[in-house]
Every structure is written in C-alpha cells, then in structure tokens.
Amino acid sequence: MTAGSASIVIIGVGNEYRSDDGAGIAVARRLRALFPSGVTILEESGEGAALIQAWQGAAWVMLVDAVRSGVPPGTIHRLDARAASVPTGFFRYSTHAFSVAEAVELARSLDQLPPHLIVYGIEGENFAAGVGLSPAVEQAVETVVERLAEEVRAAVARHNSLRSQSQ
Amino acid sequence: MKSKTIKVDYLARVEGEGALLVKIKGQQVTDVKLKIFEPPRFFEAFLRGRKFHEVPDITARICGICPIAYQMSACHAIEDACGVKITGPIRDLRRLIYCGEWIESHALHVYLLHAPDFLGYEDAIRMAKDHPDEVKRGLRLKKAGNEIVRLLGGREIHPINVRVGGFYKVPDKKEFSALAEELKWARDAALATVRWVATFAFPDFDRDYEFVALRHPDEYPFNEGRLVSNKGLDIAVREYDQNFIEDHVSHSNSLQSRLKERNSYFVGPQARYNLNFDKLSPMAQEAARSAGLGPVCRNPFQSIIVRSVEMVYACDEALRLIEQYQKPDQPAVDVEPRVSTGYGCTEAPRGICYHRYRLDDRGLIVDAKIVPPTSQNLKTIEGDLWQFVQTRLLLPKDKLQWLCEQAVRNYDPCISCATHFLKLHIEPE
Predict the structure, then answer these.
(1) What is the CATH number of the domain that holds A122?
(2) How many angstroms separate the Cα of B192 from the Cα of each of A56, B7, B18, B127?
(3) A106 contacts in B (CB within 8 Å)?
C-alpha cells in the first residue's frame, strides 16, 4: 500500500436513510470524485469500535458527521481531536450507543488516537426517516467538501515532504 | 404516602434513543414504561413496490450493528416465497457470515456497553483507563467478527455481497487462511471473556419466562429451524403471525410483541442457549459449565456470560465451517419470482428477526412485515423492572437507578431497530 493511501483517511459517518444524518456520507462520496486515488475514503455508520479500526495505522484522519447541538442548521463545526476532547452528546443523534465522541475518547484512553484527527460536524435539521438533505445542510456539505479538499491537499503535501526528509 | 420516581431521560449504552420511567408509591411499584422516541422506521412502507432482489440491501440499512440479520431474514423469506431452498456451501457461508455478526455484536455489548455496569464505571472510556487490556481484547475480538463480515459481505458496514439465492461472489478457500489464524486467537479470547465475566457479581433475579428461539435438529440455530419455547410453542416460521401479535402502546414508537395465547416472551442469546444447549459445541458447553452455568440460565443479569459463551461457539463454528469449506461452482442459485407470500426468521445477535413479504407476478413487493428482536423483548424488559424494583424498594435511589439501567441493558436492546413506522400506509398503485 502506498504511503498516501494508508496514511490519509477520510471517514464520512452517517445514515443516508435518516435525512440530514446522511451529510457525512454525502461529503465522503463527493470527495471520492475529487480524490479517486491517493487517499482512503470510507463510509461508516458511526459505530465507535469500527471507527477506531478504520483509523488504525493512519497518520492523518478527517472525519465528518452530522451533529445536533442547537445552533442553526448548516453550521459547520471543526474540532482538532488531538487538542481537545470531543464533547459526548455532541453526536448524540447517532443511532449508536458507542459513537464518534466515545470512539475518540476511548482511543485517547488507550493511546490509540491517530497523530492527526480533525472532526467536522455539520449541524443537521431533520433526522427523520427519509432520504435527502435539507437546503442549509446541502450547502454546508458543499462548503465542507471544499474545505476538506484543501486540508487533504495540504496533508498530502506535508506528508510527502516528511517522507522525503526521512528517506 | 411517600412516592419515588426513577426517570432516565436518555438511556446511555443502548442502541438508539430511549427513556425509562419507574414510579413507586409507598411500598408499591405503580408504573414502568420503557419509552422509545427514536423517529419511527419507514422501511416497511418504503419496501412496497421495490423489486424482490433489492430487499436484502434495503433492509440491511435498518441497523448498522446487525445488517446480516436483516439480509438473512429477507433472503430466506423471499426464497420461501419463490420456492427455493439453499443447501451446501452457500448455506454454510451464510452460517459463517452470521458467526461474524454475532462475534462483533456480542463483543461490542459485552465489553463496551454492559461490562461497565458490573465493574462500577459510568462508561467504557473510564473503564478503559483501569482495564486497558480487557478493552483492547474486546476491540480485537470485535474486529475478528468484522473480518468475517468483510470477507463474505464485501465490506463491514452495510455489506453488499449478499443476495437472494446466495452471494454475488464467493471466496476461494485460500482467502480464509489469515482469517482462520485470527479466529483461533479470537476463540481463546472468547474463552478468556467467559472466565472474566463469570467473576462479576450478579444480582439475584429470575422470573418464569417464556423463552422463544429457533431450534434445528442438527445445529445451534442461525438461519433455520422451528420456533419453539419452553412452554410448548413448536411452530413453523410461516405460522408466526397466527401465534404472535404486535400491540401499539402509547408511550412508545415501537410496537410491543406478545404471544397471543400467553403474553410476554424472551428472545435473544439466553433464549437460544436455554432451548439449544445440547447443540452448542463441546468447547462452548464446557466454557459455560466452567463459568457455573447449567443448561438453563434464567437470571437475565447473567446474559453477559451467555453472550460470551455464544462468542466461543461462533468462533468455534466459524473455524469448523472454514475447515470444511469447498468453493461452490456457482455463488448463487437462480430465484424466479412468483405470486406468493414468503416467511423468514433468523437468529439476529439479539434474537429472532421475522420477515414476511408478499410478491406480485413481476417480483415487486406488495406488502412487507418486519419484526426485529428488540420489539419482542420490550414487554419482558418492563416486566423485569416491575418485579426487580418491587423487591428492592429500600435501596438508595441512585443505586436503584443504576440497577434498572443495567437490567435494561441485559437485553442489549437495539432501539433503532425496534421502531416502526406506524402512521403511513401507502397502497401500491
């Protein structure tokens, strides 16, 4: 496996049959079109133990999920999980007992956090059963795709320069 | 008269969103409600008008923890409608992928959701600080289960390789070699799990339950068998609707199931174990005996031991299936639709998962019914709480609340599966 594909992982979290909960999945699918190779792009349901596995061995991890924290729909949150803990309850609308915040904090307890872990949260509006994103969330998905694309390009560049220095 | 209310607005460590309310007046429990407020499921309505071969992939989306259970029940029900019976290596591979799902689901529940109750931690994150080796063992065990699902299902979450009639692609025998090595580790780890959970302290509790599970003449049940109970139920899967009924209760978005003739019943690992102990592998039986369990275990708090014993069995059975595997000539058999109704019931990690589909002459779904395991256990969970609290009224409220939540988690309820869409009825055009 090349350093690029193993080391940079993007994880879209959510359930596309739960309206705005599909935001993370939508981001992952759009990024896959922008980065057909060189970056690992995964879709996850948000079950925490699977998330810990998904980022195992990766150097740069960027995770996107829908959140419901009470701010206007479409608001974009960005957290550096290495720098601060992820509030449990933030991803409470996940249908999983052990989800994103728990996975991050459990990995921290076990010293299994990746060296870089950025978590994007997109504030959702409608989490009812159904397909399709609310307009504000749709717009936020576009913005997050652009911002993540930039972050990925920067991570690839930094990663490659670190690799060439170490060779 | 002194009254007390135990109210948990948001039940942690259960799949989905639920709340618990227990009311006590004087020396009497006066109300118990397990409330479910997860947005109702729309899958039964959503399936109408879809092609029969789409059903396994759509129903797999109902639950991120047990997609295989939905795929398997859907495939069996549709094959039943079309008059097809799957045998040989394809049938074995279905058992194998189910082993994977049991391992991952049970490892998650035992280690991350239920063990903290017994060891006095608020959650697995805090538990991991003091018990890192156990938590790491649990995560690796779960991963071993995921690996089976990934190899046969194409991916871990929402597997895409399962189809009506079999699989889209089946592995060569050599593809199993790395997995088999990991499963040998997993089987040892599952045995260690049984020894670990057997040391926990269990509240003294039992009731006169009616346990319901599949029973098959030759094997511990996954995909096939008759529905049996310890109180005389012995029916074919297609007789399910004549024997079970679902009630809508106002405090819950989920339907609550009961037996028409009697009442509440108990599904899941403990029901399977109690009705099929003789079909467990010798190693799993021995693990159970060493942990102090007899062939029947009626204390739901000990379900954590039973789940661990089933992990031993699932690893053991997976290794047996891999050992004897011969790649089939075709990954699937042809299934031609016909106007018919089909019935399927398989053993999800949490218990029986019943599906019924009516097909038209073009193979379109006219009507669907899906009964997940958790909605079948809801009445039993509430019944447990009535009795459990009544005999422990003198406990301090925080201790009692802790034990009530623990009692709910005995059933590993998956509330996101249990909720159904109740109001919307779309008639096919």
Answers:
(1) 3.40.50.1450
(2) 24, 36, 32, 18
(3) 112, 124-125, 128, 135
